[in-house]
């Protein structure tokens, strides 16, 4: 691409076409500055419902609303020029019927400008995924550990070990056949996610699913060290921005108390010296 040609945004068919090519890179973003950080480096900015826990202090993702996803989705889309935004459908916005899912997915897309949604669930959501994709809603599926089902799963556990591997494989095949353009595998053992990746013709994007996936996703605040309430084994911390921010705020507070800040440098003089008014 030349320096003057317009930047072409990534779209769902581009992601689908990346199967077997170079690894896909996805990171969460919830704000315009967060999206601007993601845009030059990643293929996809995921407006995850993890926003409820990371930015709003919720104990799980279950309390996240459509209004929250729209607000954060809009902010993220404003910060992107190349990477594709994918918006999570929040708990309760799609499980009741394909019609309910379409209504809410269309609203998320229309009110944010994002070209795709993500929803949790495998074989039991296949009918809904098919209904959406046939009506112009590109769907990224999410199987394995599905955090919105934490209460039925009995915790944030690895899924696909101890006899339930075949169920995860069946979920993967079902979402592909239903028309999903890619699928997130969360907390799935690496051998199983490798077999799923080999079997599917759509890209798998792993989080805690090992190296064999077609792409990877992490929560931005986890990998930057900004969200430290808990630290799953699959999170690699690439920076410790939380510690840097803590030190910076401590320095600011100390300087204000010692009347060191603001200095003359950060204050406005009463008379401008040596300059024309
Ligand atoms: O909500 C989220 O951030 C997610 C990722 C962890 C895949 O769904």
Structure description:
There is one protein chain. β6 (182-186), α9 and β7 form a beta-alpha-beta unit. It is built from eleven helices and eight strands. It has an eight-stranded parallel β-barrel, surrounded by six helices. α4 runs parallel beside α5 (98-112). The chain has 277 residues and is of the alpha/beta class. It has two domains: 12-236, TIM Barrel, CATH 3.20.20.60; 240-267, no CATH class. It has helices at 12-17, 32-38, 51-54, 66-78, 98-112, 126-134, 150-153, 165-178, 190-199, 220-223, 241-257; strands at residues 24-28, 44-47, 84-88, 116-120, 139-144, 182-186, 204-207, 215-218. The structure holds 3-methyl-2-oxobutanoic acid. The site of 3-methyl-2-oxobutanoic acid has 12 residues, from β6.
The total strand number stands at 8
Please tell me the total number of domains. Answer: 2
| String of helices and strands | HEHEHHEHEHEHHEHEEHH
Which CATH first-tier class of the largest domain would you pick? Alpha Beta
Query: What profile does the largest beta sheet have?
Result: 8 strands, parallel, barrel
- Low-confidence blocks of residues: none
Average pLDDT across residues?
95
- Oligomer state of the chains in this structure: single chain
Distance between the termini: 47 Å
CATH fold node name of the largest domain: TIM Barrel
Overall 3D shape: globular
Output the number of helix runs.
Answer: 11
Give the spatial strand order of the biggest sheet: 1-2-3-4-5-6-7-8
Radius of gyration: 22 Å
**Fraction of residues in helices?**
25-40%
């Amino acid at each position: 691409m030349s320096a003057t040609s317009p930047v072409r945004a990534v779209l769902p068919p581009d992601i689908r076409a990346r199967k077997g090519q170079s690894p896909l890179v996805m990171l969460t973003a919830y704000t315009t500055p967060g999206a601007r950080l993601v845009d030059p480096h990643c293929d996809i900015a995921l407006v995850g419902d993890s926003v409820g826990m990371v930015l709003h202090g919720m104990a799980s993702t279950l309390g996240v609303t459509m209004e929250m996803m729209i607000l954060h989705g809009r902010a993220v889309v404003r910060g992107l020029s190349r990477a594709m935004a994918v918006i999570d459908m929040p708990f309760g916005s799609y499980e009741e019927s394909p019609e309910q899912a379409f209504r809410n997915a269309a609203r998320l897309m229309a009110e944010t400008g994002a070209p795709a949604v993500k929803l949790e669930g495998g074989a039991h959501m296949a009918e809904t995924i098919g209904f959406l994709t046939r009506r112009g809603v590109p769907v990224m599926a999410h199987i394995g550990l599905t955090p919105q089902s934490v209460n039925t799963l009995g915790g944030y556990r690895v899924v696909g070990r101890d006899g339930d591997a075949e169920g995860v494989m069946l979920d993967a095949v079902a979402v592909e056949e239903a028309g999903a353009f890619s699928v997130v595998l969360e907390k799935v053992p690496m051998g199983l996610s490798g077999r799923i990746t080999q079997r599917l013709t759509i890209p798998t994007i792993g989080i805690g699913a090992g190296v064999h996936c077609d792409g990877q996703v992490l929560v931005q605040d986890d990998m930057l060290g900004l969200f430290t309430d808990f630290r799953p084994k699959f999170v690699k911390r690439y920076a410790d921005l939380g510690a840097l921010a803590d030190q910076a705020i401590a320095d600011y507070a100390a300087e204000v108390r010692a009347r060191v800040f603001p200095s003359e440098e950060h204050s406005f003089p009463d008379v401008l010296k040596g300059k024309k008014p």
